[in-house]
Amino acid sequence: MSNPQGSPPPSFDPSDFQAPMSGPPAGVRFGLLGPPGTHLRQFRLLGAILITGPLLMLLMLSQVGTEGGEPMIPFVTVCTVMAVAAGAALAVGWWTPRPLSPRDHGHRHPAETAEAALAAFRRALWRRIYPCWIPILLGMVTSGWGGDGLRFYAVGFAFGWPLIVFLVWPRVGLIEGMRRRMESRGVPSYLWQALLAPAPPRR
């Protein structure tokens, strides 16, 4: 939301915006889930859920097994759909997020630009999540439609799970890639300041 007074929104500390960061700040210990209480911690918690869920499903199917019989959908057809979804995920990952517009953000307060960059980062992650999960969900559904269900899910897992790790888990390299794309038209994004700012408490 635009601030007509040009002052930073209350969720950001004005001292954090003296200069844009081209990489993670020195001295910050990220750990596995990121600094507590930050937006980065929330995104990494989401990523951890998305990564561990398919693994647990694969473990469960390998233990309980699935019914045999003739599959309702040919295996090749299912694999083709999964491959198309994986290709769509890579395309979405390549084109998101969109660069920040100099016309819209060139004269705004850095904290407002950081808010916009944070929103763009969130949208980009969700746009990547959907196509990454299509092969996994398709494998879950077809695993109960006869045939070797574990094989169907294993193929969906093989297509989707690496993409989640590569395109969704907010590691430093992924954040830097998104930051450079946002700033490709010359507008500093202040993305690192936004991700390391305190996140509002959940209600």
Q: Specify the helix fraction band.
A: 55-70%
So what's the overall shape?
elongated
Mean pLDDT: 80
Please tally the helical runs, counting DSSP H or I stretches of 4 or more residues. 7
User: Spans with pLDDT under 50 lasting ≥5 residues?
Assistant: 1-10
Oligomer: single chain
- Whole-Å distance between the termini? 20 Å
Beta content comes to under 5%
Helix/strand order, N-terminal first: HHHHHHH
Q: In the residues, how many domains can be counted?
A: 1
Question: Biggest β-sheet, characterized?
Answer: none
Number of beta strands: 0
**Global structural class:** mainly alpha
What is Rg?
A: 20 Å
Descriptive notes:
Helices cover about 60% and strands about 0% of the residues. With about 200 residues, the chain is mainly α. The longest helix has about 35 residues. The protein is elongated. This is Transmembrane protein.
Task: Write a short abstract of this structure.
The protein has 203 residues and is mostly helical. The protein has helices spanning 39-64, 75-95, 102-105, 110-142, 149-167, 172-182, 191-195.
